[in-house]
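Model: You mentioned two targets. I'll fold them one after the other.
Researcher: Yes, keep them separate.
Model: Target one:
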Amino acid sequence: MTDAEGFPGAGDAPVPRILGNTESLAATAPGPAGALWRLAEPGRQLDANLIRVPPRGSIDTHAEPDLDVLLLVVTGDGTLSAADGPHPVEPGSLVWLPHGSVRSVTAGESGLTYVTVHRRRPGMQIQRHSRP
């Protein structure tokens, strides 16, 4: 019996894939802040990033007007600040950031690494303007 035989209708369907290990990626030697990993699979409906904030570093106050974002802390600790006050985060903290919410993030003494997931933004479209 082949693997596909145990999954009726799976013939040409895409298959799940293991993309990496967040713990291993986050454990790499400290480097610059920013994205350690990005989801780049063709045809995806989601965007996801593994973000590192260095010790005592921060992400300035901002809002995402169009997309809800899910944030999962992988390593380190810090504070998510929002209109309702500061919220401590640590490994395992799962945070929903509703679209339009204003927030900032500050890493603790050991830095902060987290995954963000949100709906993929549509690509830029070049459109022809009609002349009056």
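Model: Target two:
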Amino acid sequence: MQLELTADEDGTQRYPINPIHDCDTAYLEVAKAEERPLLAKAEVFLADDSNDKVEEGYIDLAKQSLFKLGVALRASEGRTYEGPVKMWSEDMATKERTQVQGIDDEVIVSSSYDVPLFSYWLRKGNLPWADGHTYRIIVMGQWEGVDVELGHADEPSYCLKREGDLVTLFRGTPTQIEGVQAFGVRREGCRLVVSGSGTRTVRLYNANGQLVRQISTCGKQAVVSLRGMPKGAYLLRLEGKRNGCWRILWDGR
């Protein structure tokens, strides 16, 4: 006796089952496995004038005149994506979408290696983002004739904000990017001092969405140490009676 699983004719797999005694009643329960997401990776990043990823997560246009916005794609194990890829930026206030010029490609993405795509060169004079605005970065594809967002729906979105000469890319929940005034955050040297009644948990994420600090508190103040952390952009998330998020730019000093 054997169990045969078939996705298609070429993908049939056979699994032997241990001998079953003829006096016993055999029960075989087959459940459909959870389908892997189409893409295992859809990482948005900033790139410098050598097309290298900017690990700090921000560009200072006063020091670097040219940069690109990029995305690295890789399919889940056993899956392949073949189709168009476009990138859009959505203003969080107005919901207006603007296509990121240069990322408009037909690609084949497998699980073997990353496929990087880059925008055209960006400089201070041609930025499509308004000063002081926050944008959600959307990577779009097409699957079975339907336009879809590429990436994991349950992961934080990639967001971009321009503040004068500073362009910052970070991950967070778009509806909570702007700080809620129920809390106060100030920097004292290499410490962040969080104040506000009802604060329960303080979490600090790096630009890749990884949790790097977590503090639980039932008081009115919490202190988050930045000592020893790489310089770059971070997202500080406060949870309590009300929630809030702040972007933190850490210069390593």
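Researcher: Noted. Anything on target two?
Model: Residues 174-181 have pLDDT under 50 and may be disordered.
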